[in-house]
Amino acid sequence: MDYATNYDVGDRKRGGGINEDSVALSVFEQGHRSGVTADGTDGNGIGRDGAGEPDESEGPPANRSAAVFALADGAGGHDAGDVASYLATTVVCEELAPVVAEAARRDPGDFAVDIDESLLPDRPSATDLQTAVADAIVAAHRAVVAYAAESGTQAYTTVVAGVVVDGEVHYGWVGDSRAYLVNGARQSIELLTKDHGVVQELHDRGEIDDVAAHVHPRGNEITRALGGAGDGDPETASVPVETNSVPIFAEDVLLVTSDGLIDAQTDAPALYERYVEAGRSDEAAEVVRDAVVTDEEIRDLVLGSDSLVDAASGLIDLSNDRGGKDNLSVVLARDSALPSTPGEDEGMPVRAVDPDDPVEDRETVILPGE
C-alpha cells in the first residue's frame, strides 16, 4: 500500500494561528511465500510459471495490506481544538489497529496457506467493521470529553476514520471532514461522506444550490462534533456516528481531507452575495467555480500527479492558492494489489453517499454489500 499525508496551517493563519488538524495512519503490511495469489497471478497481475513460482521478470510479488486511517479538524474558536483532534486520531488508531490485524489474519488463503477455519478468528462482516469504527469514534469522543472535564476547557473536533481491509473500506464520520474515492480507470471522484453542517442542511432542504453551497457565509458551522465543554460524563458520553462500507479497487486513491480544502476561499461571503444578486446566473456560477476548489479539480490534480506525495502537496498548494482560509490536512492511500476496477460492461458499484445520478437511471449497478 502506498500512502502520503500532508497538512498546513493555511495562508490566512500563517501569521500567528495554529494548526488544529490532526492525521494518523496505521498500515498492516504482510508478505509470505510468493505473495498474494488470485487465479494464478498475484494482485498485480504477475504471472507464475508451471511450478507456481513468480515470474521474476514481471516484478516482485505483492504484499497484502490493511490500514487504519483517521483525520480530525479541531473546532476553531474553542479552547482546545488542537488537543481534541490529537486525541481523536490517536484513540481511533489505538482502537482499530488490532481489529485490522485480526481481520487480515482471517484469510491465509491469500498466501496459499491451508489452516483449518476452526483455528482462525471469525470473519467480520461489513456491519461488524462499521460497528468497530463507530465504537472507536465514540471512544475518542469520550477521551475528548474527559479532557474537557479535567481541564475546564471547551474541546471539539470533527473526525473521519475507517479501516481498509480485504478490498473494502469501512468508515465513519462526525462533522464536515470528508472522504473521497478518486478512480483512475473511470476518471471519477466520489464523495463517501455527507457533511454534518448547516450548509448541507440548507442544501438538503432545497434552499440553496450546489454553487451557493461552495461560498455560503455559514460554511464554517457544523452540526455535530466530538467533545464537549467540560460538563459531560466521560463514562457514558456518546455521539451519533454515520458509517458505511464500499469496495475499493487497484485504480482508486482514497482521499481523506479536512474542510480546509473545500472551504479555502477567503472571499466566500462576497462571492455568495454577487451570485445571489446576479440571479444565480450561469455567468455568476462560473465565477464562483473558478474561485473555489471543486471536486473536479481535486480529481484532476490527484490523477495528474506523479505520486501520492506530489498529490498531497499539490492539494495543499491548491487550497492556499484559493485563499488558504483554514487549516488543511490530507491523507491519500492506494493499493495496487487490489482487484482492478470493473470494466464498462461489468457495472460499477454505487459508492458515493449521495450519487449525482439516481441509481434507477443507471443501466447496471452493483449495490454495496450485495
From TrEMBL:
The residue ranges of the PPM-type phosphatase domain are 43-335
One Pfam family for this entry, by name? PP2C_2
- Extract the ranges annotated as region (Disordered): 31-62, 336-370
Query: Do you know which InterPro entries this protein is assigned to?
Result: PP2C, PPM-type-like_dom_sf, PPM-type_phosphatase-like_dom
SUPFAM superfamilies per the UniProt record, alphabetical:
PP2C-like
What's the protein here called? Serine/threonine protein phosphatase PrpC
One example of the protein's molecular function in GO is: protein serine/threonine phosphatase activity
> Taxonomically, which superkingdom?
Archaea
Q: Which organism is it from?
A: Halomicrobium zhouii
